[in-house]
Amino acid sequence: MLLQLSAEFDLQRDVVPWLAAQGPTAALDTFEESAETLYIVNVERNGKIIYTWKGGGRTTCIGLYDPLSKQNEHLYTFEKDLRIISCSINNEKTLLVAVSFLQSTKEERANQLLQPVSNCLTLLIEIHPVNNVRVLKAVDTCIRVQFLYPLVDRSPFPESHLLLVSEDKYIEQFHIHVVTEDHHKVVIQNSGQLPRDRVADDLIWAQWDKTEQRLFYIVPKESRNLLRCVQFYPDENFNLILEALLDIPLRDTGLKFVHFGYYCQDQEIETRSLNLEVFTNKTGSFCLCYSQASDIPKEVTYSVSFLHKGYSKTFTVALQRTDFPQVKEVAFLNLDYYVAVYLPGHFLHLLNTQHPDLICYNLFLTGEDARISMLPNSAIQSPFKSAIWDCCSGRMFAVTINEGALLQFLWNSKLDSDRLAALHCALLHVRNTTDMEMQIIQWISENLSACYTFDPIQEFIIASLYWAMCPETSKLDKLLPYTSLLYWNGIIPGITCVTEIVSLPELKVQNCKGFWEKLNLNLECVKYAEPHLHYNNNVLRRDWYKLLSEEKAEERRATTYLRNIFENAKKVLSNLAAWNLEERLVPLFQEEDYQQRLLMGLMVAQLKDHLIRHLQYIGKKKIDQIVLDYVSKLLDLICRIMEAIWRKYNLQSCVLCLDERGSAAEFAAFHMMSRILEAASGMCMPLPPGFHTLHMELGVRCLPLHTLLHYIDNGVLQLTEICATKLLKDLDNSEKNEQLKFSIFTRLPEAVGHKVSQLWNHPIISNCIARNYVELLFDKLRDRQHNRPAADRLPVRVEFLPLNYLADMLAEVEDRGLNPLEEEDNVNAKFVEETALKHTTMLLGKTLLKKDQSNRIVK
Asked: How far apart are CA 841 and CA 835, in angstroms?
């Protein structure tokens, strides 16, 4: 089970024992009646729960449970058998509003003190102590009430503000000012007509956001329905802050209340109403979830409009089970970064609200994975983030993603879409937890070849960096890459998806803060089509290759530029060393790796420039630290993957000996390092200094010579000065080692070759130097040969290489004789001829010797 519930409140556990200990006027008539008469009416913003029950003598009581103190409080008792529909208490617990259906007979109505008698009464009660009861509304339609809760602490007995939502399709706000008398009595000061504001009219749906104190409602228009949002502030003001045209058809089946409390006997009415909810997230995500009845009995259709992205996705799920009771509609749950769509017994669909563009970021679970224990097949709500209210049983649950179940799902998944979704979900919810990252690394080491549509190393590194860094700074999530995938064209079995463009919401108030500021930023990115804001490695790759080519051509840039680049790399390695005080098992960071330090410093410089362009308001010092942490964590993740490999195969931390063959464990480590190199090359990510040397050492130990040389020639293995030096020093001059040394030496970069050439005292070294010298001279001659007329060049080429070189040289000498004014080089033609012929004779002699030995063996 992916979702794990913990009961935060249970009427039977937290209230019934307390009621049993009360006096006869407050206690339940019988324990058996508790399930019918005891139910939750409302949950306030501070988490306090209002419930009602039938006391002795058929009275109706209202109580309050405080989740912090775990204490119950008896608020008020009606001396009648009433049906409480809605109830709310102000923050100071001085005023109570209750809406009741009067259940008395006609004869009893004649004796009612409160006139006129209506089906529904809205009562405002002073309860500190009980002083006065006044009627706010006396109507025949249903009324819901909700006190506003300020976002900051305020002085005692401030003005209270009450929302009143009527089934006559309007919403009002009442302003109630209370004062104290006789040092203890709370009295409503404006005892006459209470001041009120009309908030909304002609609505067909309303939802209250308890946490953020927002009212969402829908009003019908001629062509399309209009979603509006009113934000309430602590200073007693409210603003219409957002409007959005909806592209979904909504039937007017009566006003639907969402998160204005619940009464279980209204369940049949509720299920016939609109199944629509709005969920927001602190990152600026704004989602509208809507389910509609399908014409096909075994199908369920629901839509999620990602209004902050400008598109909606409509999902159709084919139900597999027929033995499970059919639930009429799905439930939408707010899991912060996910919207969960739940149909008991069938499926659980978690939709990533921050990156909903690719369906492979969504977890679609069926069977046992989709089951949520402790939840019956009844109506549930999600009044807060990561919370579930089971309306009929009277229980409140905290919802968390079970890390163990998530990792188990990752290990058992057979589809790339499931693996990718579980990987992102683990990194998103667990954040920067070393234990979770190490378990994912262990999964990667076992499943490298199982993933076909994405590279798990690339995705792990990029996603881990993204989810670890983005919570630090606003807008950073728009600037850093979050995936290695450019697109996804796979499918999820059992579910189809249709994507449609929808109208973007329009903010009515400028210069908003908090959620509205981030939502506006999301809308601006969609409006002006700025996906290029994410950092791209194409420019980094181009500049890196350019600097490397300049190094080979000895055309270095100004020393100040390169000095800054290498200073950046030094800061990264110093920052990384400060994080890791323990000695590493893998022998990395043992050398000055010019290429990787160049890439490291260049990445710091370019990422810093990218962030400064868009985050000027946070300051250069903060950006410098963000970039250093980003590149340092990148290297740290690669090191952790390496450490996990070394521990898995029980490899020693000592330097490898090159004159011995590698074990199966070393070959497996070599294969993993090759995949790490492939992933880093694909994303142009720097590697820890010493990576290539260690990789080459494992290659020498594990690969046959022809495979080793093939890997070197194709760039899988890169020769370094330390590895070449170790080869020449550690290996003796046996025929096999001579062949290896010669093959390696001829492939060394020129700069490295000059440094290590003196370490090998062997005739081949002299021959190599002569050969390189001849090639250098002939390259110059060949460049000049191209300037001669084509008719003057040698028309016939033979297969004897020294003769070709000699002919080219003589032709060049002849050309200089015909053009005496051309600049002349001092070339010893006789030395060149003798060196070339000697080299050819030596190679032919070796060939004849081997052939003669073969003939002797045959004889």
From this structure: 10
